[in-house]
Structure formats: structure tokens, C-alpha cells
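re the bet — no i am not wrong, look at it urself. input seq straight from the record:
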Amino acid sequence: MKPYRKECVLAPLFKLLEALLELFVPLVVASIIDYGIRNNDVPYILRMCLLLAALAALGLSVSITAQYFSAKAASLYSRDVKAALFRKIESLGKADLDNVGEATLITRMTSDMNLVQNGVNMTLRLLLRSPFVVFGAAIMAFTVDVRSAMVFAVTIPLLALSVALFMALSLPRFKKVQALLDKVLSRTRENLVGVRVLRAFALEEAEEKAFREENGALYRMQVAASKISILTNPVTSAIINLSIIALLYFGAINVDTGSLSQGELVALINYMNQILVELIKLANLIITITKALNSAGRISSVLSLESSLEYGKESTLLSDDAIAFDHVSFAYSSGAKDALSDIDFTVKKGEVLGVIGGTGSGKSTLCALISRLYDVKEGEVRLFGRNVKDYSEEALSDIVTVVLQKARLFKGTIRSNLLFSKKDATDDEMMRSLEIARAKEFVDKKGLDAPVEALGKNLSGGQRQRLSIARAVLKGARILVLDDSSSALDYKTESELRAELSKLDSTLVIVSQRASSMLHADKILVLDDGRIVACGRHEELLKSCPIYSEIYYTQFEKEEKSV
């Protein structure tokens, strides 16, 4: 809030000025009754009515000014915190994001930030104004008539006590509402992301039932919290109305004795009504602030996260050993079973490494360690002779590029997606990378500026994969990792792609379920349950490794030995 000190000071000051103008209104009304109406002085009544209109107009302009400054401070503050939150999320490692959860981060960025922004706005507008009006109205009542104003001395503590009691009962429930809201949002996100899977297995009814249960729990907690909070208005109204009855009773006696005028009695009742309105506002403000503070605490917990990835400052290469795993073990979480165990191999510069194995054998995990999406638990991963932890983030990005198993494209154009990897790439360079990725043919028809929807939904699976590969090729990194990134391509296109990639001056790591992708690799790693069970070329493994030969022969008809 520091950059917006001016707005944070002016907003409540203008609100206090508005409140001050409101406190004068009952006195003007009292004078109309006591002097204008009693004496049938029409010119005086008109002058006082004009004064009321002037107070209203001035109050409106002051209120609009206060609203402007409070809204400006709150919106700019929200903008800055969202930007800081986004930068923090971008700085976190993949392991940190897995631990926190995507749904949680989205909730922090959206609903939690909206609550905080609303809390800041309401705080600047009402936190000083409401107490000022309450105590100001009481003081003004005492200036009108001390004996009648003693009713205020009893009413205000009763009102404060009732509001405090209802707040103490309702606020913990509102906190539970926020926690249950997280669950509902998480469930909603899972269903939206996995809608195809749910439909494929006809699980819509089961998920709808689960959603109803969680949404029902949220509804019940909201109702429970609201049942308590809504009692605030009737109870405070009852106290105020009883106080007005007391004012009328004692005021009537004082009017009869001549110690209190009719206009002053009306002024006292108006002040009592002002107190009622402001206390209700204050009660709602406390709920809003509590929700905002709860959300702010959760946002703060994300902002205080420290990334598990600490990059070094090195950028120079030390040897021609492009990739070296030195007895590496890795688990996705503390206490979990190792996804990779004692992985040890070396790949020279310019070689092609093939990685194959059954589902869940650790192939994608190995790729993630090469690009340092995760840090190893034991051992060491070296790229060109240097530990991956020693490289700066920029240097590591220049050395290794990974094409993930699931092609990720962003909303924009084909050109904008390609420029992710190289901002200053020319059209010729882009077309060359598209040609290598066997994507030039369909891009020629569409054009580089053809629109791409979010996640590339307007493209086929094969087109998305080829564009992802073209983007990686355009980067020109020394190590190119293809994590089963050609699974949607037909055998002919994949064969042409491999032939083009082999011409690149890069070390290739090809992860695939297809044995045909491994045929021309310089070295093939066969993984099983997170361990290397064999390493060699295709011909060697076909004879010596049962797992590899089983994978191969399930995809190709077994030939006679003579052939």
C-alpha cells in the first residue's frame, strides 16, 4: 500500500468530512421544526431546505471523491499483489507447484484476491467513518439535551456488545466457508479438465453426486454462518427501537415541561437512527475484513514460499560429455517410493540416446531431471561436465530444451507460439524449424499468423506435437529431449522427423514407446520400475534384453532368424 499513501489518506478523510456533514442534518431539521414550522415562517423553512439540499450535494460530491480514492487504492493494490503473486508462482519449481496444487494457486489469484481487494476498499471507506458517526452522534445528542442523551449512554454499549457477540459466533464459520469453497473450486476444476475422461467412463452421475455433497456442505456452512450474522440486524434494530421508545417517553415528558423542544426530540431520534445504520455497516465491515484477512493470510503463505530450485551462476561448458547421470535416485515426495533408483550412464556430445520401457518405468521422470524440472534425491546430474545446479537459469535453458509428452500451445498464432523459444527468430528460421518438424506443409496452408486457440484446441494432436517440436528445434539448444512427443504421428512422418532431427548439431534424447524410434540410436536405455535393466544398441538389446525384445516383437512381427 506504500505507493498509494495519498489515496489511503484522502479516502478516509473525505469519508469523515461526509460523516461530519451528515451530523449537521438533524440540527437543521430541528431548527425547521422549532423555528420555521412553529412560527409558520415559510422563508425560513425554504432557506433551511436549501441548506439541506446544499449539504446533500456537498455530501454527494465528497462521498464520490472518497469512493474514487478508495477504489483506486484498492484496485491498484490488488493489481500489484496479483503481479507479485504471479511472479512468485513463476519462480517456484515443479515440485513446489505439485505440493501447493494448481487449484489452490488459481483460488489465491482469483477469489482470494477479490476478497482482499473488497476488504481494502471497504476498510478505507468505513473503518474510520462508522465509529466516527456513532460517537459523533452520541456527542451531538449530548449537546442537544444531556438528560435525554443518557439513553445513548446505555444504548451504544448494548449495541457494541451484541455486534461483538454475533461476530465472535459467525466469523469462525465464515473461515470454514472459505475452506469448503476451496474444495468446491478444486472439484470443479478437476471436472472441467477431465471432462473427456469422465464421459469416456460414464462417470458424470458419480462426479455430480460428489459435487453435490461438497457443494451441499458449503451451502450448509454458509447457511449456518448467515443464520447467526443475519440476527445482527433484527437485534440491533430492536435495541434501537426500544431506545427510540425510551427517547419518546422521556422526551415527551421533557417537551411537556418545556426543557426540550419538539425539534430537538426529532434530532435525538435521527441521531439514534444514524447510530443504528452505522453499527450495521460496521458489523458487515468486520465480516468483510475478517474474510479479507483470512484470504490475505493464504495469499501471504504463497508469497512466502521459497523455491526449492536455486540456480547457480555458471554458463561455461567443461567437457564433451553432454549428459551424465552419476548414480541418481529420485522420489517425487518425501517418504515416497523412488521413481528412479541408481541411474548411471553417460551420453557424448552429438550422440542419440534412446529411452524405452513400460508404462511407469520412469522415462518422463528421467527427462524431467535432465532439464532440472526437479532436483535429484541422491547422486548428480551433469550437463557438459557441470552439475545442473551450478548453471544459471538462462544458461540451462540455452543448453537443454524438452518437448513434453503433452504438447502445450498457447492462445495466439503459430508465429507467437514459435517465438516463445526465440524472440528474434526470422520467418526463414521459423519455416526451417517447421520443415524439420514436418509441420511446414500444413503451416503453408494456414500461414504463420493463423490463430491458435488456448491449448491448441483448433489443431489436431499430430499438428500440436509437430508445432511443439518445431518450437524446440528453433531454440537451437545443445540438448534436445523428446519425451514421447511424436506419439500422435504416423510411422512414415515419425521416420521422416527422426531423419531430419539426426542432421541437427544437437545431442538427442528420444523417449518413446515405439521400438522403431530406437533403431538408429547410439545408445538405448531400457528402464523397468525406475532402474536401468539394460544399455546398448538395438541389435545387442534384441539378443540380450528380454524386456526390450518383448517390446519390439509386440510391435513387429517376429522374423525368422535366417532373414
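see?? Residues 558-563 have pLDDT under 50 and may be disordered. told u. also Residues 321-555 form a domain with the Rossmann fold fold (CATH 3.40.50.300). so pay up
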